[in-house]
Amino acid sequence: MLVPVLAGLFGGLTFLGQLFEESGRQGIVVYLTLSFAPALGAAIQGALMGAGIAVLVYAVVERGEAAKAAKGAATGSPEPAAEELPRWTPAKLPPPRPERDLTVGELAWATIALSFAFAAPFLLSRPLFSEGPLAGEPLLDPEVWIPWVPLYLLLIAMSWGWMLVRFFRRRWSWALFAVYTVLDLAMAALLITALYTESVANPVFRERGWVGDELAQIGTGLVVLFTVWDLVASFIACRRSLARRG
Questions:
Q1: Backbone phi, then psi, for 230, in 5-degree steps?
Q2: Is 95 inside a domain boundary?
Q3: Which of 10, 108, 167, 208 could form a disulfide with 5 if both were Cys (CB 3.0 to 4.6 A apart)?
Q4: Distance of alpha carbon 176 from alpha carbon 159, whole angstroms
Q5: Rounded average pLDDT per 10-residue block, the chain, 246 residues
Q6: Half-sphere exposure (CA, 13 Å, Cβ side) for 223?
Q7: How far apart are CA 120 and CA 204, in angstroms?
Q8: What phi and psi values does residue 135 have, to the nearest 5 degrees?
Q9: Contact, 190 vs 151, CB < 8 A?
Q10: In terms of pTM, does the model score above 0.70?
Q11: At what angle do helices 28-75 and 2-21 cross, to 10 degrees?
Protein backbone atom coordinates (compact mmCIF):
# COMPACT_ATOMS: atom_id res chain seq x y z
CA MET A 1 0.00 0.00 0.00
CA LEU A 2 2.81 2.40 0.86
CA VAL A 3 4.61 1.98 -2.46
CA PRO A 4 1.88 3.26 -4.83
CA VAL A 5 0.68 5.90 -2.36
CA LEU A 6 4.09 7.46 -1.75
CA ALA A 7 5.13 7.08 -5.39
CA GLY A 8 1.99 8.89 -6.51
CA LEU A 9 2.25 11.63 -3.91
CA PHE A 10 5.95 12.30 -4.45
CA GLY A 11 5.73 12.14 -8.24
CA GLY A 12 2.45 14.03 -8.59
CA LEU A 13 3.31 16.88 -6.25
CA THR A 14 6.79 17.25 -7.77
CA PHE A 15 5.36 17.34 -11.29
CA LEU A 16 2.79 19.94 -10.24
CA GLY A 17 5.48 22.10 -8.65
CA GLN A 18 7.76 21.78 -11.68
CA LEU A 19 4.97 22.86 -14.03
CA PHE A 20 4.92 26.22 -12.27
CA GLU A 21 8.67 26.45 -11.67
CA GLU A 22 9.64 25.73 -15.27
CA SER A 23 7.31 28.41 -16.64
CA GLY A 24 9.01 30.61 -19.20
CA ARG A 25 10.85 27.91 -21.14
CA GLN A 26 11.18 28.28 -24.86
CA GLY A 27 9.39 25.19 -26.20
CA ILE A 28 6.56 22.97 -25.00
CA VAL A 29 8.72 19.84 -25.32
CA VAL A 30 11.48 21.31 -23.17
CA TYR A 31 8.87 22.62 -20.72
CA LEU A 32 7.21 19.22 -20.23
CA THR A 33 10.51 17.33 -20.19
CA LEU A 34 11.96 19.55 -17.47
CA SER A 35 8.75 19.05 -15.49
CA PHE A 36 8.39 15.30 -15.98
CA ALA A 37 11.98 14.19 -15.38
CA PRO A 38 12.18 15.34 -11.72
CA ALA A 39 8.68 13.94 -11.11
CA LEU A 40 9.76 10.50 -12.32
CA GLY A 41 12.76 10.57 -10.00
CA ALA A 42 10.55 11.67 -7.10
CA ALA A 43 8.09 8.83 -7.82
CA ILE A 44 10.91 6.28 -7.74
CA GLN A 45 12.18 7.82 -4.52
CA GLY A 46 8.69 7.61 -3.01
CA ALA A 47 8.34 3.95 -4.01
CA LEU A 48 11.70 3.09 -2.48
CA MET A 49 10.81 5.02 0.66
CA GLY A 50 7.54 3.10 0.99
CA ALA A 51 9.32 -0.24 0.64
CA GLY A 52 12.03 0.89 3.07
CA ILE A 53 9.51 1.96 5.70
CA ALA A 54 7.77 -1.43 5.53
CA VAL A 55 11.09 -3.30 5.87
CA LEU A 56 12.17 -1.07 8.77
CA VAL A 57 8.93 -1.58 10.70
CA TYR A 58 9.05 -5.37 10.31
CA ALA A 59 12.74 -5.43 11.28
CA VAL A 60 12.11 -3.41 14.46
CA VAL A 61 9.21 -5.64 15.49
CA GLU A 62 11.14 -8.85 14.80
CA ARG A 63 14.25 -7.76 16.67
CA GLY A 64 12.21 -6.38 19.54
CA GLU A 65 10.50 -9.71 20.06
CA ALA A 66 13.82 -11.56 19.76
CA ALA A 67 15.50 -9.23 22.28
CA LYS A 68 12.64 -9.69 24.73
CA ALA A 69 12.88 -13.47 24.51
CA ALA A 70 16.70 -13.39 24.90
CA LYS A 71 16.44 -11.14 27.95
CA GLY A 72 13.98 -13.51 29.60
CA ALA A 73 16.26 -16.48 28.94
CA ALA A 74 19.34 -14.64 30.31
CA THR A 75 17.67 -13.59 33.57
CA GLY A 76 16.23 -17.07 34.08
CA SER A 77 12.78 -15.69 34.75
CA PRO A 78 10.28 -18.51 34.77
CA GLU A 79 7.83 -18.75 31.95
CA PRO A 80 4.30 -17.87 33.03
CA ALA A 81 2.07 -20.85 33.43
CA ALA A 82 0.15 -21.45 30.28
CA GLU A 83 -3.57 -21.25 30.75
CA GLU A 84 -5.72 -23.82 29.06
CA LEU A 85 -7.56 -22.03 26.34
CA PRO A 86 -11.01 -23.01 25.17
CA ARG A 87 -11.15 -24.92 21.92
CA TRP A 88 -11.03 -22.57 18.98
CA THR A 89 -13.49 -22.90 16.13
CA PRO A 90 -13.94 -20.85 12.95
CA ALA A 91 -17.18 -19.55 14.43
CA LYS A 92 -15.09 -17.41 16.79
CA LEU A 93 -13.73 -15.38 13.88
CA PRO A 94 -15.05 -11.81 13.76
CA PRO A 95 -17.31 -11.02 10.81
CA PRO A 96 -15.21 -9.87 7.84
CA ARG A 97 -15.27 -6.20 6.99
CA PRO A 98 -16.46 -5.44 3.47
CA GLU A 99 -13.72 -4.80 0.98
CA ARG A 100 -13.22 -1.24 -0.13
CA ASP A 101 -14.34 -0.36 -3.63
CA LEU A 102 -11.74 2.42 -3.48
CA THR A 103 -8.28 1.49 -2.22
CA VAL A 104 -5.86 3.85 -0.52
CA GLY A 105 -3.66 3.88 -3.63
CA GLU A 106 -6.62 4.75 -5.87
CA LEU A 107 -7.62 7.52 -3.46
CA ALA A 108 -4.09 8.94 -3.59
CA TRP A 109 -3.99 8.90 -7.39
CA ALA A 110 -7.50 10.41 -7.60
CA THR A 111 -6.38 13.16 -5.23
CA ILE A 112 -3.38 13.89 -7.46
CA ALA A 113 -5.59 14.03 -10.57
CA LEU A 114 -8.01 16.42 -8.86
CA SER A 115 -5.04 18.51 -7.71
CA PHE A 116 -3.94 18.91 -11.33
CA ALA A 117 -7.49 19.84 -12.30
CA PHE A 118 -7.61 22.37 -9.45
CA ALA A 119 -4.25 23.90 -10.44
CA ALA A 120 -5.04 24.07 -14.18
CA PRO A 121 -6.67 27.55 -14.18
CA PHE A 122 -3.79 29.02 -12.17
CA LEU A 123 -1.21 27.42 -14.46
CA LEU A 124 -2.96 28.49 -17.67
CA SER A 125 -3.42 32.05 -16.38
CA ARG A 126 0.30 32.80 -16.31
CA PRO A 127 2.68 33.17 -19.26
CA LEU A 128 4.29 29.81 -19.94
CA PHE A 129 6.94 30.91 -22.43
CA SER A 130 9.42 33.76 -22.56
CA GLU A 131 10.29 33.31 -26.23
CA GLY A 132 8.48 32.38 -29.42
CA PRO A 133 4.95 33.23 -30.65
CA LEU A 134 3.42 32.57 -27.21
CA ALA A 135 5.93 34.74 -25.33
CA GLY A 136 4.37 36.58 -22.40
CA GLU A 137 0.83 35.44 -23.14
CA PRO A 138 -1.27 33.22 -20.87
CA LEU A 139 -3.40 30.57 -22.55
CA LEU A 140 -6.56 31.33 -20.55
CA ASP A 141 -8.72 34.40 -21.09
CA PRO A 142 -8.50 36.56 -17.92
CA GLU A 143 -12.24 37.31 -18.22
CA VAL A 144 -13.05 33.66 -17.51
CA TRP A 145 -12.05 34.04 -13.87
CA ILE A 146 -15.33 35.69 -12.91
CA PRO A 147 -17.50 33.77 -12.25
CA TRP A 148 -16.49 30.58 -14.06
CA VAL A 149 -13.20 29.64 -12.42
CA PRO A 150 -14.44 29.95 -8.79
CA LEU A 151 -17.44 27.74 -9.65
CA TYR A 152 -15.10 25.26 -11.34
CA LEU A 153 -12.80 25.16 -8.29
CA LEU A 154 -15.82 24.66 -6.01
CA LEU A 155 -16.97 21.64 -8.02
CA ILE A 156 -13.45 20.18 -7.94
CA ALA A 157 -13.36 20.57 -4.15
CA MET A 158 -16.81 18.96 -3.84
CA SER A 159 -15.65 16.06 -6.03
CA TRP A 160 -12.71 15.46 -3.71
CA GLY A 161 -15.06 15.55 -0.73
CA TRP A 162 -17.28 12.99 -2.45
CA MET A 163 -14.22 10.80 -3.02
CA LEU A 164 -13.42 10.89 0.71
CA VAL A 165 -17.00 9.98 1.63
CA ARG A 166 -16.91 7.04 -0.77
CA PHE A 167 -13.59 5.88 0.68
CA PHE A 168 -14.79 5.92 4.30
CA ARG A 169 -18.12 4.29 3.42
CA ARG A 170 -16.06 1.53 1.79
CA ARG A 171 -18.73 0.54 -0.76
CA TRP A 172 -20.78 2.08 -3.53
CA SER A 173 -24.43 2.99 -2.99
CA TRP A 174 -27.12 4.41 -5.24
CA ALA A 175 -27.09 7.58 -3.13
CA LEU A 176 -23.37 8.03 -3.78
CA PHE A 177 -23.93 7.43 -7.48
CA ALA A 178 -26.73 10.01 -7.54
CA VAL A 179 -24.51 12.65 -5.92
CA TYR A 180 -21.68 11.81 -8.33
CA THR A 181 -24.07 12.16 -11.28
CA VAL A 182 -25.14 15.61 -10.10
CA LEU A 183 -21.50 16.71 -9.73
CA ASP A 184 -20.56 15.31 -13.14
CA LEU A 185 -23.50 16.95 -14.91
CA ALA A 186 -22.91 20.25 -13.08
CA MET A 187 -19.28 20.27 -14.21
CA ALA A 188 -20.26 19.45 -17.79
CA ALA A 189 -22.90 22.20 -17.83
CA LEU A 190 -20.41 24.69 -16.40
CA LEU A 191 -17.70 23.90 -18.96
CA ILE A 192 -20.07 23.88 -21.94
CA THR A 193 -21.68 27.17 -20.89
CA ALA A 194 -18.28 28.79 -20.46
CA LEU A 195 -17.14 27.53 -23.86
CA TYR A 196 -20.15 29.07 -25.63
CA THR A 197 -20.41 32.33 -23.66
CA GLU A 198 -16.77 33.22 -23.11
CA SER A 199 -13.64 33.36 -25.20
CA VAL A 200 -11.94 30.87 -22.79
CA ALA A 201 -8.73 31.05 -24.85
CA ASN A 202 -6.70 34.25 -24.71
CA PRO A 203 -8.34 36.76 -27.11
CA VAL A 204 -4.89 37.47 -28.54
CA PHE A 205 -4.89 33.98 -30.04
CA ARG A 206 -8.26 34.63 -31.69
CA GLU A 207 -6.98 37.90 -33.15
CA ARG A 208 -4.01 36.05 -34.61
CA GLY A 209 -6.30 33.39 -36.07
CA TRP A 210 -4.85 30.56 -34.00
CA VAL A 211 -8.17 29.80 -32.30
CA GLY A 212 -11.61 29.97 -33.92
CA ASP A 213 -15.21 29.09 -33.20
CA GLU A 214 -14.38 25.41 -33.52
CA LEU A 215 -12.85 25.55 -30.01
CA ALA A 216 -16.32 25.55 -28.44
CA GLN A 217 -17.50 22.69 -30.65
CA ILE A 218 -14.44 20.52 -30.03
CA GLY A 219 -14.45 21.31 -26.31
CA THR A 220 -18.16 20.50 -26.03
CA GLY A 221 -17.67 17.19 -27.81
CA LEU A 222 -14.84 16.21 -25.48
CA VAL A 223 -16.81 17.23 -22.38
CA VAL A 224 -19.89 15.26 -23.45
CA LEU A 225 -17.80 12.22 -24.38
CA PHE A 226 -15.91 12.18 -21.09
CA THR A 227 -19.05 12.80 -19.01
CA VAL A 228 -21.01 10.00 -20.65
CA TRP A 229 -18.08 7.59 -20.38
CA ASP A 230 -17.51 8.49 -16.73
CA LEU A 231 -21.18 8.11 -15.76
CA VAL A 232 -21.53 4.77 -17.56
CA ALA A 233 -18.35 3.42 -15.93
CA SER A 234 -19.51 4.62 -12.50
CA PHE A 235 -22.96 3.07 -13.01
CA ILE A 236 -21.42 -0.29 -13.91
CA ALA A 237 -19.06 -0.12 -10.92
CA CYS A 238 -21.92 0.75 -8.55
CA ARG A 239 -24.14 -2.04 -9.91
CA ARG A 240 -21.36 -4.62 -9.60
CA SER A 241 -20.58 -3.52 -6.05
CA LEU A 242 -24.20 -3.85 -4.99
CA ALA A 243 -24.50 -7.22 -6.76
CA ARG A 244 -21.52 -8.59 -4.82
CA ARG A 245 -23.29 -7.72 -1.59
CA GLY A 246 -26.36 -9.62 -2.75
A1: -65, -40
A2: no
A3: 108
A4: 11
A5: 81 78 62 79 88 88 79 62 71 76 80 85 75 70 84 93 88 91 94 85 76 82 94 91 76
A6: 19
A7: 20
A8: -60, 125
A9: yes
A10: no
A11: 150
